Amino acid sequence: MKLHYLHKNLEKSIKSTYHEDISFLKLWHYHPESELVYIVQGEGTLYAGDFIGNFKKNDIFFLGSNLPHMFESASNNSSKELCSAYVLHISPAYFEQLPLDQIEFSLLRNILTLSKQGIHFKTNRPNIVFETFKKMMNENLAFNSLCLLQLFLQLQETSSSSPLSNIVYQTADLNSDKRLQSTLQFIMQNFQSDISLDNAASKVGMNKTAFCRYFRHKTGKSFISYLNNIRVQYACKLLSDQQPEKTVSEACYLSGFNSLSYFHRIFKKTTGYAPSQFKKELPSMITAS
Q1: What residue ranges define each of the domains in the chain, with the CATH number in brackets?
Q2: What pTM value is reported for the model?
Q3: Residue 287 — very low, low, confident or very high, per pLDDT cuts 50/70/90?
Q4: Where is the HTH araC/xylS-type domain (predicted)?
């Protein structure tokens, strides 16, 4: 997947849109605007930073400024149901004008900090949140500004939340560092294949030692740790898929691991579960969340 920079060029600090099509836009991209998404209908795979996981109806995601992401609709949509979502794009200027250092804005300040990694909200009151999104599908900026604050409060009061990516992407790095862009693209395009540290270093014209220092400095992780995390995230997605259902062995090799024993070790280290245990307990984990 090639990483694209998209500047929304918002005429107002909040842009509200309703998307409906046979599938969502399959484009791995980032932009300075934060993005708040309510999945009305449809399912598929969300890529956000180094996170790979499923999305479905009533899921809500808050993707912070410059977090690379893509919503890939499921390819097994035999009924040809339309995918639809409410999407809010919020310019950095909107948040910059708020007194976020004041105690009454501590909730929003915390949400913005977490949004750098992306946040998945699961609300137990979807109708309430849905109606607020729906009300914001207009051009009244003053009204939408108040609704947005109300929306964040509703999400805090009615939802459980979890971070998506393990990496916080810096604006300057993604906008100006072509080497970092090239490296991230290389990983996302090839993580299911047998790629190595040598491959990645040579791709950007560096020796292994220099590349290791560079990559850790930019991401806070070693290259192998970053790669393994993406592979485990993808394996979790495969193990949670029902159509078609995957075995642990299939999830291992389809995720890019070439050793079942190594896959078991890394999977448990990353998730706290053995792959078979994760697959077995997934229904209860989903119910609990």
Answers
A1: 4-163 (2.60.120.810), 177-288 (1.10.10.60)
A2: 0.89
A3: very low
A4: 181-281
